[in-house]
Fold this sequence. Notes:
This protein is of the alpha+beta class. The chain is built from 23 helices and 13 strands.
Amino acid sequence: MRGSVRAFFAVLLLALFPFFVLALGVGGVVAGLTIGHRAGMYVAILAAGMMLALGLALAQALRTRLEPPSGPVLTRQEQPGLWRLVDELAAQAQTRSPDEIVLVGEINAAVREDARALGLKEGKRYMMIGLPLLAGLNVTELRSVLAHELGHYGGGHTRLLAVSYRGAETLGLTVSRLDSGPARWILGAYAWLYAVVSRSANRAQELQADAYSVAAAGSEAAASALRKIATMDLLWEAYGERFLGLPSLAGRTPDILLGFRNFLDHPQQRRIVAEIEPKVLDNQPSSLFDSHPTIRRRIEKIGAMPAPPARPDQRPAWTVLADPARVVPAAEARLYIKGELGPRASWSEIVRIAGAASAARGAELLAGAGRESRAAPGGTLGELLAAIQHGRIDQLMSPLLEDGGNPEQAREGLVELLGDVIVCALIAQRRAHHELSWGGGRLITGPQGELKVTELVAPAVRNPALVPQFAQRLTALGVRMDFVRRPTAAPPRPAHPAGGAEPQLVGVAPEVMAFKKNWDVLVFDAGLLLVPLKAGKLAGQSLAGAVGQGGHAQRKRVTGLLELGQAELFGQPGVRWLPTGTVLGGDRKKFLTGGGKIALRFAGGETATLRTQHDGGYESLTRFLDTVPRGQPVGSR
């Protein structure tokens, strides 16, 4: 009841908003006429203009429609078992089932309804199920989660959420179009009041929906699902950091959900969850603007609800799907990979291949640094150890550290890279390999069992007097002192097409869609360089993005481009150079959801539209427009 009253006030506030706008404008006009003279005329004109601008913003916002969720749609024909479950839970909630069930990549489940007439008229219903939940929850817990979401339908919450959405959109657009001043302050206060009232209603609705969850699956399953979801984000992130960068390195396609399930079931993760779960629940922030009560409060309320007897089903939640061995990989490919990584392989094979590739990369780096610094002219292991023994670590590592780094950074980097050299040498002789460990990532098995490389290498790096004994130990393991990993020779690159003096880099716009392809765009003072974004790299970023590491993967990729010389950079296969001198003008448009696009017009009538979802990338592209010489028309809309 309390939630319904709060929702009523939220709807009332939104319904009164047009009258508030009208009163603000009319009041200003009346005040101006009352004042009279020139000052009053200015006030009246200003108020009328403000009322017109606010009215246009209001009309545009009220026409805003909910975007359908993006992801694989699970139809009734393909997934009859899942739909039977949803229909059963909908009947218990005394509501109609959703029109579509969509898999999404986030750790979440939600419902949406594209309601009309301020939420009073029903619209198309969507249910979204986060793919990781199918691995992290059991069948009973999934039943609890779905019942909770359908409880929102049963309580009419989704129509009210549509009102909240439109209200927030209306007020946000209107306030954003005003400059600083009394009108913005007043409307900002109105928007603040609306947010407080509407979010309070949302929190009450969540507790009401939990009652449906308990009725469908029991209080134990309902509380267990909430606790798991509270910590699953952290575990998904840890899983991504340890494992989801390996498929791109190995050139193999993994079973992402199966790996996540194995990761969660490992005793190490179970111990971690037992330690962090109380801290996560106790430290959840609580604010007037939160749409959900804290999980701790929800669990307490669930424990006090009457619960029917329930028989738990401990099978993984993906067993509710028909043919999960086909459906789940297809969903992974669409939500996370979005390209071709290579043939499908087991995680054990992926770890073995990626581990060897990573060791080879590190060994190549250290050999190259030895040659460049002249501390180890041939790059062999024996020369590297001699450089360490004679105190030339800083010289050896100088090509790999920015501004030479510091001694501690040099030693830490050398421990890692020298370990790569040793592992690479043993792999080359088939005396070592990487093994999968869901508890720690990967293990290295050598001639005498598990090889703890850091413990083997670090003492000699930190105390050069131990290098002779270290060399003897390596020889006993079968490592040759003349081993060197030589990089594959890179083909010569042509000079960049800008000609003359090298252009200066002024910005970067990663992951831009243009000419029906994905690019990383480097913004120079003389033009734009479009570097093709290969499917494998985009897939790696998508995998990392699923666990919150997309930004790190993107920065690592862009940093690799920036480390190239300009001749090599401009000479990469498939790059496109768009010089500033050929641009006649362009338009720019910022997206409300983030990022934006620029539409360029070139001499000869050609056009090109560059789109990005990243605010920083959009700003870099707009700076390019600002470099167009004066006299060339640059539009803005």
